[in-house]
Structure formats: structure tokens, C-alpha cells
Write a structure and sequence with these properties.
By secondary structure, the chain is of the alpha/beta class. It has 17 helices and 34 strands. About 30% of the residues lie in helices and about 25% in strands.
Length: about 650
């Protein structure tokens, strides 16, 4: 084998590595390895001076392979690859030994063991580096169109940013109108701005933008292809109303004899079978609920079609299957409200005067079922004594361990509005108040000053007087260390947390995305790549990624749009060459690799042999490890490279 000239560069990472690992001893040991012609250390190798050290050593020592002992490759591998390019070396002739996360940090109390492990890690890295081969990054054209899944505030914000930048946008929303949960909210905290006043102008802009194709009542069924070249299958349900013909005149609803609970109003009011979801809906057109319609002929009903002067109603409307070609995808599927019936001790669903935050929001809205008046559902009277209970479905070992972030401020906002409107006596039970945003703490303090009573403690039980329908709330004041009981409570509001939508699993499966243990979609890196997914070209934004408030949602949507623009703006992209390659002479066409590939990157060609799509393959090694004929090899992680690392480790034992 050709003699390699390996250079090893050891990073102190300040004191993260050097404070635990004996760097001088590590250097002395590494210098004795065959093929290592240069060893050097520096406090921060990732810094500009550190990169210059590598650059100079490559020139002066004629190095052809580089090993860096530093932090995780996830942090600075891209940085060091560029250094390799600048030095005239192929960027994939680089190996990084993780001496921080996998060594010094976990052996901080045992420097001797940390040093021994660091020696092993660098020796193994050198053994692999000697067998690394130069790889070329494949180049692909990028389609300048984006698919956005979800038409809430995150999807709307991302769509407008992309469309205004000149890119084609397909906005897919499963409901009859865009707007998401924010369209149901009355005010936003901490400024108490009208949510609709903020949202509806942007909704209207989406509806009229020439670069945005809005697909309501639609869901993504299948995604094929790869970054820059996705083919998306969308199923659009029938609306039974022609959006272009409908004038929103309301004549059809006046003659419709069917009343059903209105989902938009949290089932606190009724709507007709043919209805418009809410006054500011986009598109501004009615939708016919065929599940509740009495019939589409004149014998059973047919009244709405008879009354519709523009002829917008079409009982023969049908499902459509659409094929879209896009270069990038943004997932903004939002959230659902935690089902409070799972907390039986609070009586939600059993006691009529126990409600959740979403129901109060609709009551507070001037366009809601009670025209802005919060009432007791049992008798529609104005409540004079109200109790809020925080963390229902959040920070709970039995339901969800995470904090939903928005519940505290939503409850404080509602309590303040109710206090100002009605002067009601309001108590708010909390575990910890989390007022984390700009102006949030000040809003909490002013709410307390306005007369809302905050009680640190959990509520253990709610009882109902079946005669008056009043409630008794039993809990504990943990600051005083005493149990307490509130009698004659008119209304209890549960601050229900947020959970991933039921569709999250399907979206993750269709797009081949990962989910975190809480069920939200998993980002590539929580700090450095918070809106990227592990699937190139697919981004996540808003509450699809995890609980957050409106400002953070919009910021993340802009970040996702920016990421999509960066990809599409280039016109072409390069992908990492960590893909598997097939030896056609060995391949028998057994299709085992096709069935096992988690990325659907392998197909069978006309010649009966397997073929790997380089843009889709992530080099996970599943196919190569399962192939009985050893016909598939994972580039950059070959059997020989891995075996060399194992042999090097065992030789020192």
C-alpha cells in the first residue's frame, strides 16, 4: 500500500479537553504511529489561526491525510472540510476523533482514563484515515418551488417570505381555510393586540399572491425523490362549492335545515351543514359538510343549490389527486390541545362549568359564540368566581413531561382580560410561572397588581354541587405549606397544554422524518440547525417542532423559508458522497436491500440489479450489512476502514 503522510492536530478546546486529557503524553504516543509525520496541538483548532496551522502543515509537510482530535464532528466537520479544500486536499480525506463529548466530558473525574481513551481514539482515527479515499460530491439541479404543509401562522409566514422572493409556493392545508389555531384566538400576549387584526391581512395576502397556490381540504399522501427534486402526491377532498363562483352571500345557510356543533367555536355554538368556517376565512367561500347534509337531491333537501344564484354549489364534486414538483419542503403542521378528559380529577367533560383555554378564547372573541362574554356553560350566567389551573397535561409524569410554554401566559392574559371586563374574583393555581419572553414578566406583575390572586400549588380535586352547578376546588398552597379549599366557584378553566397533532406520525412516515420522544418532529441540531430535518431539503417550523409562542413561531418560519431559499437560490446543490455503491457483478437482484432501506433510496433496474440514488442515500449501512453477496459497499465507511479501527484498538490491549 502507498505510504501515507498523516498529520494529527489536537485541539485543547480551551480547557474542555486539555483540562482533563494529558495532551503532551497524547502527542508523544501519537508521534510513534507508522504513517504519522506531523503532530501539533493548539488551543482552538477550529479558529482561524488553528485552520491556518493545518493549511501551512499540509504545504510544508506534504500531508495527504488529516486527523483532528477535537469536539464532535457535528460541530465543526464542515469547517475542517473547507480547510481541507483551501489546502488543496480532498475534503473527505479527513477523520475527526471526538475527544470532548466522548472522552473528556464523560471522564472528567478520571484524567488517567480519559488520556488512555484519547490515545485509543486517535490511534483508531489514524488507522481509518490511512484507508480513506478521495470522494466527489454529486451535483443536482434544484426546482425553484416549495411545498408548505400547514396553513397556520408558521406556514403563512414562510409562504409569504418565499413568494415575495420570487419562488413558487404550494400551501397545503387540511382545513377549509388557512389561519390555523391563531385564527381562533382573541388577543395576543403581552400587548393584548387583536389576533385577527394581525393574522387576517396576511391570510388575504396569501390568497391573492400570484406565486402561492393554496390547496385547502388537502393532505400530502406521498413524497418521492430527493432534495431539489421532490415529487409530491396531494389528495384534495371535494368542497362541493366552486370557490371562484361563490360570493359568500349567506343565502345557502339561511335555507339549510341542519345544525351541527361548530368546530371553529370549540363546539360552543352551532353551524349549518353548508357554512363558512369563520367570517375572515380564506378562501372566502362556503363548504358543504356532506357527512351531515340531509341529501343532495330535491326529494330529501337540495335547498342550498336551489337558492344559490351564482350556481356555485356542485353536488357532483369529487376528490382530486395532484402531482407537484418541488425543490424543498417546509413542515408547519402545528399542534392540538391536550385532551383534559385524561385528567379525571378535574371533571372535564363531566362538569359543564369546567372548561379549557381554547373554549374561553372563543368566548372572549367578539365574533365568538357569546359575542365576547365569558359565561358558565350550565346556565349562561356571568361567572363571579373563577379558578385557573395550570399545567394540565404538561410537566406531568402521567401525561406529558415537557413544558408547553404558552399556557402560563395565555392564562395570565385571559385572567387579566376577565378581571378588567367583569371584575370577577380570579385565582390562578400554578407550579412555576414561566414568563420567558419580552414584556412577559411585566405583564404578569401588572396582572397580579390588577387583583388576580396567584397561588403556588397543585389542585388535587374538583367537586360539583349538582343543584347550583357550583364547584369546589381543593388544592394546596405550597408556599404556606397548607391545604386550601375554594367554595362556590362559578367557573374552572384548565390551562391545557399542547400536543403534536394526530397527523404528526403520518407526516413523519411520509417524509421519513424523526420524532423526539414527546412526539414533535425532531430537528437536525437543537442549537445549530433548529429548523433543518435530517432529510436534506425538508425543514420544520413552528409548533411542528415543539411548543413555542407566536413570535418564536414566526421567527422559525422565516428561518425555514431562508433555508429553502438558500437551497433553491443556488440552482444546483451538492450532496455528501456518503452513499452506497453496488457491484453489479455480485448483485443477484434479491431485493433484500430494497425492502430494508429506511430512505427508499434503492431500486431494481431493468437489468435486475440494485441501483442506489446518491441524493437519497444517507450511507446508514443497513443495505451493506444485510447483503449476503457483499454486493453493496458504503462509501467512506467501508468494511476495511472499520476493520482497521477495530484491529488497531485490539492490538494495544
Amino acid at each position: 500500500m502507498l505510504e501515507r503522510r498523516v498529520g494529527v492536530f489536537l485541539c485543547h478546546c480551551g480547557s474542555n479537553i486539555a483540562g482533563v486529557v494529558d495532551i503532551p503524553r497524547l502527542m508523544d504516543t501519537i508521534k510513534k504511529i507508522d504513517g504519522v509525520v506531523h503532530v501539533e496541538d493548539y488551543k482552538y483548532v477550529c479558529s482561524r489561526p488553528g485552520q491556518q496551522i493545518i493549511h501551512d502543515a499540509v504545504k510544508d509537510k506534504r500531508l495527504d491525510r488529516i486527523v483532528i482530535g477535537s469536539c464532535s464532528p457535528r460541530m465543526h466537520e464542515v469547517t475542517f472540510r473547507q480547510t481541507m479544500r483551501d489546502s488543496g486536499l480532498n475534503p473527505f480525506l479527513l477523520e475527526i476523533a471526538n475527544l470532548r463529548e466522548q472522552c473528556s466530558w464523560i471522564h472528567s473525574n478520571d484524567p488517567k482514563a480519559a488520556t488512555e481513551k484519547a490515545i485509543d481514539l486517535v490511534r483508531m482515527a489514524v488507522a481509518r484515515a490511512k484507508l480513506l479515499e478521495a470522494l466527489d460530491e454529486p451535483v443536482f439541479e434544484v426546482k425553484k418551488a416549495t411545498l408548505i404543509i400547514g396553513g397556520g401562522i408558521a406556514g403563512i409566514s414562510a409562504a409569504l417570505d418565499l413568494a415575495n422572493a420570487g419562488f413558487k409556493v404550494y400551501l397545503v392545508e387540511k382545513e377549509p381555510s388557512i389561519g390555523g389555531k391563531m385564527s381562533r384566538w382573541d388577543k395576543t400576549f403581552p400587548t393584548l393586540d387583536c389576533a385577527s387584526c394581525i393574522l387576517t391581512p396576511r391570510m388575504a395576502e396569501v390568497g391573492s399572491h400570484p406565486n402561492i397556490e393554496m390547496l385547502t381540504l388537502s393532505q400530502v399522501e406521498k413524497v418521492e425523490g430527493f432534495v431539489g427534486n421532490f415529487e409530491v402526491t396531494v389528495r384534495q377532498k371535494p368542497r362541493y362549492v366552486d370557490v371562484k363562483k361563490c360570493t359568500s352571500c349567506d343565502d345557502c345557510t339561511k335555507v339549510c335545515p341542519v345544525d351541527v356543533p361548530a368546530e371553529f367555536d370549540a363546539n360552543l355554538a352551532y353551524r349549518r351543514a353548508i357554512h363558512i368556517p369563520f367570517a375572515q376565512a380564506v378562501p372566502s367561500a362556503y363548504v358543504l359538510d356532506m357527512k351531515n347534509c340531509l341529501g343532495v337531491d330535491t326529494i330529501r333537501c337540495g335547498k342550498c343549490k336551489e337558492k344559490c344564484e351564482p350556481g356555485a354549489i356542485n353536488y357532483d364534486d369529487h376528490e382530486r389527486i395532484l402531482k407537484l414538483q418541488t425543490g424543498t419542503i417546509i413542515v408547519a403542521t402545528g399542534f392540538e390541545i391536550f385532551d383534559a378528559t385524561k385528567k379525571e380529577e378535574y371533571g372535564y367533560g363531566e362538569f359543564p362549568n369546567v372548561v379549557n383555554l381554547a373554549e374561553v378564547e372563543r368566548m372572549l372573541s367578539a365574533g365568538g359564540p357569546t359575542q365576547g362574554h365569558v359565561v358558565r356553560p350550565s346556565d349562561l350566567k356571568e361567572p363571579r368566581r373563577i379558578v385557573y389551573i395550570q399545567c394540565v397535561g404538561s410537566r406531568d409524569e402521567r401525561t406529558n413531561r415537557y413544558c408547553s410554554r404558552v399556557c402560563c401566559m395565555t392564562a395570565i392574559k385571559q385572567a387579566r382580560m376577565l378581571r378588567d371586563k367583569t371584575g370577577a374574583e380570579i385565582f390562578l393555581f400554578y407550579i412555576d410561572l414561566r414568563t420567558f419572553g419580552k414584556g412577559y414578566e411585566e405583564f404578569y406583575e401588572s396582572t397580579a397588581a390588577a387583583g388576580v390572586t396567584f397561588i403556588r400549588g397543585r389542585v388535587g380535586e374538583i367537586l360539583q354541587d349538582d343543584t347550583t352547578m357550583n364547584l369546589t376546588v381543593r388544592g394546596e398552597d405550597t408556599l404556606l405549606g397548607k391545604p386550601m379549599q375554594l367554595d362556590d366557584v362559578d367557573l374552572v378553566v384548565l390551562s391545557t397544554g399542547v400536543v403534536p397533532p394526530a397527523s404528526a406520525k403520518d407526516v413523519a412516515r411520509i417524509l421519513n422524518l424523526s420524532q423526539s420522544p414527546d412526539g414533535f418532529l425532531l430537528e437536525a441540531h437543537p442549537k445549530l440547525r433548529p429548523v433543518d430535518s435530517f432529510n436534506d431539503g425538508i425543514f420544520v417550523a413552528g409548533m411542528a417542532q415543539g411548543p413555542k409562542d407566536i413570535p418564536d413561531t414566526v421567527a422559525q418560519a422565516k428561518a425555514a423559508a431562508s433555508g429553502a431559499m438558500a437551497l433553491m437560490g443556488k440552482g444546483r446543490i451538492t450532496v455528501e458522497p456518503y452513499y452506497s455503491v453496488v457491484d453489479e457483478d455480485r448483485c443477484s437482484g434479491c431485493r433484500l436491500c430494497v425492502s430494508l432501506c429506511p430512505y427508499n433510496a434503492i431500486t431494481i433496474e431493468k437489468n435486475g440489479r440494485a441501483h442506489v440514488n446518491p441524493a437519497v442515500c444517507k450511507g446508514c449501512g443497513t443495505c451493506s450489512s444485510a447483503c449476503a453477496a457483499s454486493a453493496i459497499t458504503s462509501q467512506h465507511y467501508t468494511d476495511g476502514q472499520i476493520a482497521a479501527m477495530v484491529e488497531e484498538y485490539l492490538s494495544a490491549r
